[in-house]
Amino acid sequence: NYICHMIYVTRRERFNAAHKLWRPDWSDEMNKEVYGKCANKNWHGHNYDLFVTVKGEIDSETGYVVDLKLLSRLVKSEIIDIIDHRNINLDVPFMLGKIASTENLAVGIWNILNPIIDTTFDCKLHSIKIYETENNFAEYFGK
Ligand code: NI
Questions:
Q1: Which of 19, 38, 46, 126 is catalytic?
Q2: Catalytic residue check, 5
Q3: Which is the catalytic residue, given 57, 103, 132, 139?
Q4: C-alpha 19 to ligand 1 mean position (Å)
Q5: Which of 32, 38, 74, 135 is the least crowded, having the fewest Cβ atoms under 10 Å away?
């Protein structure tokens, strides 16, 4: 009489960080044309919202897919502590050498969290979604 329920649950964490979108191999004009305000030489910040969605079955004992307190703790120690109040271009090891776009952030965060969630919890990472502004966000599903 066992019924499988695949459920998706999401934890939001917030961070703020500085960045600029800039290719050193492009001219100033080209950078400004492509990246607009985000190309400002002396940096600027965003208040990012990070949504970590996992999928799994409901544990019949707890009623949970995952204890979101524990997922939050993991996201804080692995990501937020590394990126919050930092400069994404200069201070964040997993972004070094990459364009500090929301897309690249989403992939970088996936690559860190996916193997840890796999071995720590009885659920799978489903997506990483990051809002850079309330109108612009990127979402990554691991492929
Ligand atoms: Ni920006």
A1: 38
A2: no
A3: 132
A4: 6
A5: 135
Instruction: Encode pLDDT of 49-98 as tens digits.
Output: 999 999 999 998 999 999 999 999 999 999 999 999 999 999 999 999 99
3 state SS for 5-73: CEEEEEEEEEEEEEECCCCCCCCHHHHHHHHHHHHCCCCEEEEEEEEEEEEEECCCCCCCCCCHHHHHH
Strand partners, 52: 11, 128
- Whether 85 is catalytic: yes
pLDDT beyond 90 at 111: yes
Could you tell me the distance, in angstroms and rounded to a whole number, from the CA of residue 24 to the centre of ligand 1?
16
SS3 2: coil
Q: How far away, in angstroms, is 52 Cα from ligand 1 center? A: 21
pLDDT confidence of residue 1: 52
